[in-house]
TrEMBL record:
The lineage of its organism: Eukaryota, Fungi, Dikarya, Ascomycota, Pezizomycotina. This is Ferulic acid decarboxylase 1. GO terms for molecular function: carboxy-lyase activity; metal ion binding. Mn(2+) binds at residue 258. One of its GO terms (cellular component) is cytoplasm. The active site is at residue 307. Its EC number is 4.1.1.102. Belongs to the UbiD family. UbiD-like/FDC subfamily. The keyword Cytoplasm applies.
């Protein structure tokens, strides 16, 4: 059994490369894969495995173990066939590097492998990484520099088509349910449009490349088909400049050539060389390059393969365009990097997630939204994007949560990155979005299903998310559109592709067994019932895209209070209300407690009373609706928890209100501070109340021309008050009527 431990000094390369010395040269770890290997060795972050090892499942199992333990990447030197009694002259055609962009155990350098490949120090933080990616995007592209084939390391060996037989190569089979041995799990495809205006470098697995609508490889391929061509010129780079993999994963806008951004990201132009059999240019120092053509008419079976979401489905192969390999070029002693997709984190999360996070952060900032940070937590399998909002800046915008949610959703889902991100969560800046524990804590304690989400049901999305692809077509006709789904109500067989234990020389892997999952339509539906209501911009319940949750735990800044003269509503208010019976009872309660004058407290809902005495009484003279009588259905006591002050929103108290009138036709609840015996004061930001000793009792913030009490957690329910309208909310009852009501 192999022991995974850092390589010792005797196994290190004799040439140690200082990343500080090569930061802006063509030999930097960002532009030269060999330099990256040397840099990893110099930091004790590489394991050389020289014992014979099978590419059939065994390499995949060991690499998965590296991901799960945050161990150094393994470099496999001695590849064998699964039958140890035979030999194959092509077994050691190349070495294999596993987990090239996995995470480290050391918290200080946890993102060190990502950082090195972007010309950053190993101690770079997630924000450093995103800033680097965004800076490169906005920097002038550095066009690649063509060099002669005679000086290109990647041309040291050339295999024409008649000498190329990939079936004899030691290409690893990584998961038991994979449809074959995938040569491309970490490399990138290069295609160019017929008019040469767009050169696309993009990442996609390669047994036969799946060409999905929405991917840029599909868009360029379609241009060649529309141009009347039978084939699309194609190249697959395994592996080239490490920074190129990040650019290939960057969701740049359609039509933008990625090759210039590799130089901008690496701070130095990239050297390229022309292919042998087509006009494409590939990195001159690429380890291995496959040149060929994508057919416009012929297809071959492709798949299945364990994917980034952590599942392997035992599906039948699907037809995909056939790729013909015309030539292979490679360096002496080449190294093939691999990604063994499964439960996070692996390269399908670290590389892809960082690139998507940078693109969304850049888009939100460019739209003027008060965003501090965006991160795609690796543990969420690239299915969540978490947006951190600057609470102080948000308060100054005057936006309500519905407005913020709409703006965030429109920006995110209007980008190519949004096509790849099915769920967006918005949190306050008290949550570190790069700490998944904090994100889960916020979601568990702040998100209220059915009230705190906004569904964008008709936007395009990556058609690979399991809850979309595995649902019945009656429920989800198009897995690539929307995300408002019900999980399937039928049992389905899945295989989890996260296990890493292995036994024996045949690479048999334990932990990859099938298991059965049953989903209930009813339980899933509760997560997708949107309930939008106006709210104060400092309300800690932010809603965003598909599944979202309350986000901000403390108000920090507030818009200035405006004073409006009270006048009758600009339009008649209904005297009878239609209850939203499709919502749970807690969501049908009104939590709008407005500061009122007059001589009564009142409440709209029977459910909030702690003691209650039903009565039948109609008030003939009232200010709510002078033209009709007002029904009072009961009277009783209400115990209401409130926030004491803005300085400490976690300090609360309970106000016990007596002789509260139950008025079902009211548009809100009314709290009369004078009846409670508290003093009041007003600042530019809020109304505050205090007891006889001067201790804070309650605080109210501006809302719809008046002021609304701040309740702990700002519970969200049914509301009928609309911003922009004017309301008369104070209720005065004559002494005779009051005696009849309360005794």
């Amino acid at each position: 059994m192999f022991r995974l431990k850092p390589t010792n000094s005797s196994l290190r390369s004799t040439r140690h490369i200082s990343t500080a010395q090569i930061r802006k040269t063509k030999d930097s770890p960002a532009l030269n894969f060999r330099s990256l290997l040397s840099a990893l060795r110099s930091e004790n972050d590489l394991i050389d495995i020289t014992q014979p090892i099978s590419p059939h499942l065994e390499i995949g199992a060991l690499t998965r173990r590296v991901y799960e333990t945050s161990s150094p990447p393994p470099l496999f030197h001695n590849l064998t066939t699964t039958n140890t009694t035979t030999t194959n002259p092509t077994n050691n055609l190349f070495k294999i590097l596993g987990a090239p962009v996995g995470l480290r155990q050391d918290p200080l350098t946890r993102y060190g492998r990502i950082a090195l490949q972007l010309n950053l120090p190993s101690t770079a933080t997630p924000l450093d990484i995103l800033n680097k990616l965004m800076t490169a995007k906005h920097s002038p592209p550095l066009p690649p520099t063509p060099i002669p084939s005679s000086t290109a390391p990647g041309k040291q060996n050339i295999l024409p088509a008649h000498k190329t037989n990939l079936t004899k190569w030691p290409i690893p089979t990584l998961h038991p349910l994979d449809g074959g041995a995938y040569v491309g799990t970490y490399g990138f495809h290069i295609l160019r449009s017929p008019d040469h205006s767009w050169t696309s470098w993009s990442i996609s697995r390669t047994l036969v490349a799946p060409i999905m609508p929405g991917q840029y490889i599909a868009q360029v391929h379609q241009q060649w088909i529309d141009h009347g061509a039978q084939d699309t010129p194609w190249a697959l780079v395994l592996d080239g400049p490490p920074a190129a993999a990040f650019v290939g994963g960057m969701p740049l806008p359609s039509g933008i050539s990625e090759d210039g951004y590799v130089g901008a990201l690496a701070d130095s132009p990239l050297e390229v060389v022309k292919c042998e059999t087509n006009d494409l240019h590939v990195p001159a120092n690429a380890e291995i390059v496959l040149e060929g053509r994508i057919s416009a008419t012929k297809t071959v079976p492709e798949g299945p393969m364990a994917e980034y979401h952590g599942y392997a489905f035992p599906d039948e192969p699907v037809p995909e365009p056939r790729i013909t390999v015309d030539c292979v070029t490679y360096r002496d002693d080449p190294v093939l990097p691999i990604c063994v997709a499964g439960t996070a984190p692996d390269e399908t999360h670290t590389l892809w997630g960082a690139a998507i996070s940078a693109e969304i952060l850049d888009a939100l900032r460019g739209a003027g939204l008060p965003v501090r940070m965006v991160w795609m937590p690796f543990e969420t399998q690239c299915c969540w994007v978490v947006v951190s909002v600057d609470v102080g800046e948000l308060g100054r915008t005057g936006w309500g949560t519905e407005e913020l949610s709409r703006r965030v959703g429109e920006v995110v889902f209007g980008t190519h990155a949004g096509w790849e991100a099915p769920k967006v969560f918005v949190v306050g800046d008290d949550v570190d979005v790069t700490d998944t524990k904090q994100v889960v804590w916020a979601m568990a304690t702040r998100w209220r299903p059915g009230a705190d989400e906004v569904v964008f049901g008709d936007v395009r999305g990556l058609p690979m998310v399991p809850y979309m692809t595995r649902a019945g077509r009656a429920e989800v006709p198009d897995p690539g559109r929307g995300g408002k789904t019900r999980a399937p109500s039928f049992p389905m067989q899945l295989a989890r592709c996260g296990g890493s234990q292995w036994h024996g020389r045949n690479g048999q892997i334990a932990g990859f067994g099938e298991f059965q999952m049953r989903f209930s339509s009813a339980s899933a539906t509760a997560f997708h019932t949107p309930q939008l209501s106006p709210s104060h911009p400092l309300d800690p319940l932010f809603c965003t895209s598909l599944l979202t949750f309350p986000a901000i735990s403390h108000p920090i800044d507030h818009p200035k209070m405006t004073t409006r003269a009270l006048s009758p509503p600009t339009s008649p208010l209904p005297t009878k209300r239609t209850k939203a019976t499709h919502l749970p009872p807690s969501a049908r309660i009104c939590y709008d407690w407005m500061i009122v004058q007059g001589n009564c407290h009142y409440a709209r809902d029977r459910a909030i009373f702690s003691t209650y005495r039903p009565i039948t009484r109609r008030l003939k003279h009232n200010m709510f609706n002078p033209h009709e009588e007002l029904e009072v259905a009961g009277v009783g006591t209400v115990q209401m928890a409130v926030v004491r002050s803005l300085e400490n929103p976690f300090e609360t108290t309970v106000l016990e209100l007596h002789d509260v009138l139950h008025i079902p036709e009211a548009v809100c609840n009314g709290f009369n501070p004078l009846l409670y015996g508290s003093s009041m004061s007003c600042t530019a930001e809020a109304w505050t109340g205090a007891d006889v000793a001067g201790c804070p009792l309650w605080v109210a913030l501006p809302f719809a021309g008046g002021s609304r009490l701040v309740l702990p957690g700002n519970p969200r329910g049914e509301t009928e008050i609309i911003e922009g309208r004017y309301y008369t909310l104070s209720l005065y009852v004559s002494p005779e009527e009051r005696r009849e009501l309360v005794g």
